[in-house]
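Form 7-S
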Amino acid sequence: MSNENTPQEYKQPGNVPSDAENNKIYGILAYIGILFVVPLIAAPNSPFAKYHANQGLILFIVECAICIICSIFSWIPVLGVLVILCGSLIGLGCFVLMILGILNAANGKTEPLPLIGGFTILK
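Output:
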């Protein structure tokens, strides 16, 4: 296959069609909570799986931070209610990001998630 006929989305580093096709399930699993470790174990040499594992890890960290903050401030009478309401809205946003990540992985894309996609922990 020549580079002129390769779709633009696959010219990005780590976005090889066969890699994406072979590791879609690992990319999907990466967004479901702690399962971000599955691609790291099952496909450690796949740039596609590692990319989605990184995105899933960042999303998992954000979700854990929200839970911890809500748990700490839930004991304060007035502030606790506001923090829990804000935490619930942010949790809903995390759910939307999870769905976006799953759709990207299912479609073989390596697009960063909005707001949190610019961070890289796993290289």
